[in-house]
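Protocol step 4 of 5: obtain the predicted structure for the target chain.
Materials: sequence only (see below). No template structures provided, no constraints applied. The aim of this step is simply to have a reference model before the mutagenesis design in step 5. Sequence pasted as it appears in the construct record:
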Amino acid sequence: MNIATKMTGAAVAAVLWLTFAGDAAAQQAGFKIYISADMEGVTGAVTNEQLGPDGFEYQRFRQFLTEEVIAAIEGAREAGAIEILVSDSHGNGQNLLIDQLPTDVQVVRSWPRPLGMMQGIDETFDGAIFIGYHSSTTNPNGVRAHTTSSAQLTAVHVNGAEMTEGSFNAAIAGHFGVPVIMISGDDAVVSEVQSSIGDIEGAIVKWAYSFHSARTLHPSAGRALIREKARAAVSRIAEFSPYRPETPIEFDVTFKNYRPSQLLAYLPQVERTDSHSIQFVGDDMVEVSRFFTFMMNYSSSLEP
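Step 4 output (structure tokens):
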């Protein structure tokens, strides 16, 4: 073997060692993943009987929600996630059976919180996953379709684009440079959010027939699909881009009743654009989220 051949072999060995070392370092560094968990999109959930403390199936579906979050955690970890924060983002924000989660996972609970369903996210996260989500209030399809409040709102827009909770929360994540990489729920929400923010991984666990009816997977099949899609999402995390609406943000809300728009227009930052609608212009999504949280939660009778 001549010197040139020996040098070539050494160079190849060096390249292979550097590649291995780089891969090992990347694997050791791992990914930090944020999980926002709603409940209307959980496998089998179709009515209030599964979604609130007074429902006869609520305790059972708290278990199903917890197991779907665990499935997402397991799938993400199989693809290299090492740190995970979960936001309990349905109803009273106290749905997850937190003692069943892995001991190193932290949980955001209850309300109010400035970033709503995305509280705790920041620029240190590599990706966000939405579990149990539902379609928007302007979508004619989907189980329990609404945006934040089915009782109070008929439309939410950011820069003229109709918002689902998924796209609104993706915009908050995008403010911090974090892409949404996966969503689970019915066929309506997966299609709607993908059309808004891009071709993220989608776990369709049921197919909507109406506001309160769907054809659904078995809970164990739903969990298996969520785990598979979470693993796939983290495996190709570099392919996703943050969803970033242009700033300043024009935030438009339409109410079912006229009095909220009338009263909110007393604020100098708010314009009443018609009998049922207002517009707030924020510097960024954090400011918009804080206003939205105030708008949906303030009452002079608040205690303590």
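Step 4 remarks: The radius of gyration is 22 Å. The mean pLDDT is 93.
Proceed to step 5.
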